[in-house]
């Protein structure tokens, strides 16, 4: 066994650095013939890959634009087990620069060999690290209305999933990568135990979509089996005239937190949630859809009967209905998605239905004159852990609050200056149980991303004399 200690990006050229948006290295479980075949190919667009054969749901390393890489703490490393994982999958997303957006898109030939360099050693460290993805699943059901300065979205990792997966003593989160796209303004990773909300694990108050790297926490945070984790994102869509939907492109939005933790477990690697279809249609004032309709049409209420869902999304009076929309989306039901390293739902979680937690004891900083005016460190830490017992409605009903105005802990993260770029969303397809339906926005928009997947042999690793070695883990050959 070998352990990764450090990783960093390797760009093919200065031009590549401006187009590569993020790179993710996944570990693949098993050694199927399909993976063997894919490892000999030159790569393919991610959306064309047959995900059913990709048992590659464990993240080894993640890099985003603006990051210089990541160095693990001295006692932690990521295990590279050649007897369990022979294949690794490299996922690279490319993005056009702001001044290159055009319609129709102008084809541009580009060959790129950028990738990640891993430093590893055969001298194992005390703890094996893992990565847990928490947040909203990238999907059209994640809707962000236009023209709003403060839109809240929440992705839940429910307690039923952590209860099944985490060891009895829990896991320790020691670093986080908090990700939104262009209109994200804040991200918070919340922790709830029973009905008590603990101090936020991390809070980035000023996100920048061009600078979202792993940040080490000042001290590891323990998460026990049964704890709920919530990725809470705040967006500013005031400069957008059209809705923004969840998705992979930078004109769509995301709400994800990648949490580095130890000890590693493989039962739970992706812990997302997705608003249920009833929640989505109720948030739009719709009671019922026409079963099997294509395009999807509304059955009731009578005043909307016959209207397509697309038309409702585009013509909805967001200005006057935003508060009710926000309430329904945050209090309505959702589908927990708890996936293992083998890219399959964890047993027993397939039919879960989730709701917002009933928090009866929530962390809230009680400000005092001594706290506001004093620079005494002891006074600060005496005040920072105060709790008040309030109902969930009183504590969390903060639709109009564009800043919690609290100091969560020394795990508060301040991002770089926020991006000023704001554009309309790309919307692609919607999967509804009633039948296939295609959803297209009114205005055509260019494709933002090229997604490329590559399978890499672990056999390419070499160790020299037990000392840390440098190996080019992946090279992207894209035409």
Write the layout of secondary structure elements.
Layout: E1 2-10, H1 14-19, E2 20-28, H2 33-38, E3 44-45, E4 58-64, E5 70-71, E6 76-80, E7 87-95, E8 115-121, E9 127-128, E10 130-136, E11 143-144, E12 151-157, H3 159-165, E13 171-179, E14 184-193, E15 196-197, E16 202-204, E17 215-223, E18 228-235, E19 244-245, E20 255-262, E21 270-275, H4 277-283, E22 288-289, E23 298-300, H5 309-315, H6 318-331, E24 334-339, E25 361-363, H7 369-373, H8 377-384, E26 387-388, H9 392-396, E27 412-413, E28 429-432, E29 435-438, E30 449-457, E31 469-472
Parallel strand pairs: 6-9, 10-21, 15-25, 16-27
Antiparallel strand pairs: 1-5, 1-6, 1-8, 2-4, 2-7, 3-30, 7-30, 8-31, 10-20, 11-19, 12-18, 13-17, 13-20, 14-15, 14-16, 14-18, 21-24, 22-23, 25-26, 28-29
Helix pairs in contact: 4-6
> What is the first-to-last residue Cα distance?
35 Å
Give the overall shape, derived from the CA principal axes: globular
Structural class: mainly beta
Beta-strand portion reads 25-35%
Transmembrane segments: 448-465
Family: Belongs to the copper type II ascorbate-dependent monooxygenase family.
Domain Copper type II ascorbate-dependent monooxygenase N-terminal: 7-95
Organism: Anopheles dirus
Question: Which key terms come to mind for this protein?
Answer:
mainly beta, Jelly Rolls, Cu2_ascorb_mOase_N_sf, six-stranded mixed β-sheet, 31 strands, dopamine beta-monooxygenase activity, 3 domains, disordered C terminus, copper ion binding, eight-stranded mixed β-sheet, 479 residues, globular
């Amino acid at each position: 066994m070998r352990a990764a200690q450090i990783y960093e990006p390797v760009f093919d050229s200065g031009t590549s650095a401006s187009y590569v948006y993020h790179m993710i290295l996944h570990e693949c479980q098993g050694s199927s013939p399909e993976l063997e075949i894919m490892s000999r190919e030159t790569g393919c667009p991610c959306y064309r890959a047959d995900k059913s054969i990709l048992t590659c749901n464990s993240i080894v390393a993640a890099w985003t634009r603006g990051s210089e890489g990541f160095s693990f703490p001295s006692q932690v490393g990521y295990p590279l087990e050649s007897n369990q994982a022979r294949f690794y999958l490299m996922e690279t997303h490319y993005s056009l620069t702001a001044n290159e957006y055009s319609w129709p898109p102008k084809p541009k030939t580009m060959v790129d060999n950028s990738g990640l360099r891993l430093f590893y050693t055969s001298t194992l460290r005390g703890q094996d690290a893992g990565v847990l993805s928490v947040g909203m699943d990238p999907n059209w059901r994640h809707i962000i209305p236009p023209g709003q300065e403060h839109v809240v979205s929440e992705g839940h990792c429910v307690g039923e999933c952590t209860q099944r997966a985490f060891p009895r003593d829990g896991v320790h989160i020691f670093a986080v990568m908090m990700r939104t796209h262009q209109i994200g303004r804040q991200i918070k990773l919340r922790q709830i135990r029973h009905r008590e909300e603990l101090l936020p694990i991390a809070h980035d108050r000023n996100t920048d979509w061009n600078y979202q790297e792993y940040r080490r926490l000042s001290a590891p945070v323990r998460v026990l089996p049964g704890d709920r984790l919530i990725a809470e994102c705040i967006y500013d869509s005031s400069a957008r005239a059209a809705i923004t939907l969840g998705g992979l492109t930078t004109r769509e939005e995301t709400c994800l937190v990648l949490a580095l933790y130890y000890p590693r477990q493989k039962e739970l690697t992706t812990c997302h949630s997705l608003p249920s279809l009833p929640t989505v249609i109720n948030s739009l004032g719709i009671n019922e859809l026409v079963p099997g309709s294509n395009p999807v049409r509304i059955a009731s209420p009578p005043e909307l009967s016959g209207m397509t869902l697309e038309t409702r999304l585009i013509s909805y009076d967001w200005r006057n209905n935003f508060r009710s929309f926000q309430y329904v989306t945050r209090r309505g039901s959702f589908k927990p998605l708890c996936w293992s390293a083998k890219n399959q739902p964890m047993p027993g979680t397939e039919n879960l239905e989730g709701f917002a937690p009933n928090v009866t004891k929530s962390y809230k900083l009680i400000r005092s004159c001594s706290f506001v005016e004093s620079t005494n460190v002891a006074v600060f830490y005496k005040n920072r852990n105060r709790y008040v017992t309030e109902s969930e409605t009183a504590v969390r009903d903060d639709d109009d609050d564009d800043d919690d105005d609290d100091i969560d802990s020394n795990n508060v993260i301040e991002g770089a200056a926020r991006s000023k770029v704001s554009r309309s969303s790309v919307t692609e397809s919607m999967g509804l149980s009633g039948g296939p339906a295609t959803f297209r926005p009114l205005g055509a928009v260019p494709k933002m991303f090229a997604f490329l997947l590559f399978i890499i042999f672990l056999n390419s690793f070499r160790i020299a004399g037990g000392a840390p070695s440098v190996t080019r883990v992946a090279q992207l050959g894209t035409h």
